[in-house]
Design goal:
Elements lengths: L10 H9 L6 H9 L3 H15 L4 E5 L1 E5 L27 H13 L4 E5 L8 H14 L4 E4 L2 H10 L4 H11 L3 E2 L9 H7 L6 H13 L3 E8 L5 H18 L2 E8 L15 H14 L5 E3 L2 H4 L1 H7 L6 E4 L18 H10 L3 E4 L10
Parallel strand pairs: 1-9, 1-10, 2-3, 3-4, 5-6, 6-7, 7-8
Length: 363
């Protein structure tokens, strides 16, 4: 991975590649992260976006992040949500509570349940088969976008299953797709600082590769603005792009900046909106094998989200009927579908509701 930028690289040489439909290099991406002119980045990113998706349309989904447990032994320094086993504030939803939340989601027009929690040592494969089976039986129209690679790897471990067998059983129970959570930065030096007990880069990638081989699609993500360098961001993006080339596991990519409030990961200053917009643009330009780039209205708020549509993003993400993890750090921009559509229209685009598979819905 390049740590310096060749003097032969310029915004013009990169623009020639972009307009010529060519792939940019890691060195090019590093140059773009340092490039001072955000308008030029936006122009290139928007061109890539228009080649990959409908230029006039911005999609979104109505869904719920169902955090079934906050019990987790991993103690990630960037997380304000978890409670260690035995903590009086720890919880695991019972069956009735879980199904009630799914019913509420359906009643509000939701089509996706993003089912995520912590690495709870009391929950083995039978717990997930039971609850997924009930959701599949009672709500066959709901898509279960569930469990991060870290959760799946841990479930396999404590259930004494291979990763492939664990995924096969979860799929049979009702798992449709896997969110890209837990990717953070796919550089082990960084992961050892922010989450020393979590899965390694290769383990995260192996989970997504194995799932793809079983027909389970996923998304990819990047959480930036903590202890990583710009070189680390580029290395992360390179690993994501390489795996997409290899087996096409990902339907979309989303990036957001680290929210330090109430966490155990002190940083000097939070990433700015300018850094966020720059990062979205570089991700769109570099990830030429992704059709969809999702913005993070939850962390950025409505105004920056609208601007990000001009920096390569084509998806507004989820209305999030409920969300507890990022909100645990004091950040909560949760809007209704009506507000999503107003913001998208005001930014000059046509809003379209979708499902997890990025199929447009007739609403």
């Amino acid at each position: 991975m390049a740590t310096t930028v060749s003097p032969d690289i310029s915004i013009d040489t990169i623009a020639d590649k972009v307009y010529g439909g060519e792939r940019i290099s890691a060195e090019d991406a590093l140059f773009l992260f340092h490039h001072p002119n955000l308008n030029e980045l936006a122009t290139l990113a928007n061109y890539r976006r228009e080649q990959a998706s409908d230029p006039k349309t911005v999609t979104y989904i109505v869904g719920r992040i169902l955090n079934y447990t906050n019990v987790c032994w991993v103690r990630c320094k960037f997380c304000a949500f978890y409670r260690v086993p035995g903590n009086e504030e720890g919880y695991t939803l019972d069956t009735e509570e879980t199904l009630a939340k799914v019913q509420d989601t359906v009643d509000k027009g939701g089509v996706e349940i993003l089912f995520q929690g912590g690495l709870n040592p009391k929950l083995k494969i039978d717990y997930y088969e039971h609850i997924f089976g009930l959701i599949k039986e009672k709500f066959p129209q709901v898509i279960l976008h569930a469990l991060s690679p870290a959760e799946i790897i841990y479930i396999a471990h404590i259930s004494k299953l291979t990763l492939e067998d664990c995924l096969k059983r979860l799929k049979a129970a009702g798992l449709h797709s896997i969110p890209g959570a837990g990717g953070e930065i796919l550089v082990d030096r960084v992961r050892k600082i922010i989450a020393p007990y979590k899965d390694t880069t290769d383990e995260w990638l192996a989970c997504m590769r194995t799932a793809s081989g079983l027909g389970i699609k996923s998304t990819a993500s990047m959480m930036f603005g903590h202890v990583e360098t710009l070189e680390d961001r580029v290395e992360h993006l390179g690993r994501i792009r390489d795996l997409q080339d290899e087996c096409e596991p990902f339907r979309a990519f989303v990036t957001w900046n680290f929210q330090p409030e109430e966490t155990n990961l002190p940083i000097e200053k939070k990433a700015t909106s300018f850094d966020y917009l720059r990062t979205v643009a570089v991700c769109r330009i570099f990830l030429d094998n992704f059709a969809n780039v999702q913005l993070s209205i939850l962390t950025q708020g409505p105004r920056v989200a609208q601007i990000a549509l001009g920096y390569g993003a084509n998806d507004f993400g989820s209305t999030m009927i409920e969300e507890n993890v990022v909100s645990a750090a004091g950040n909560k921009f949760i809007l209704s579908s009506e507000e999503f559509e107003r913001l998208i229209r005001d930014a000059g685009y046509v809003p379209r509701r979708r499902n997890t598979r990025y199929e447009l819905l007739g609403v």
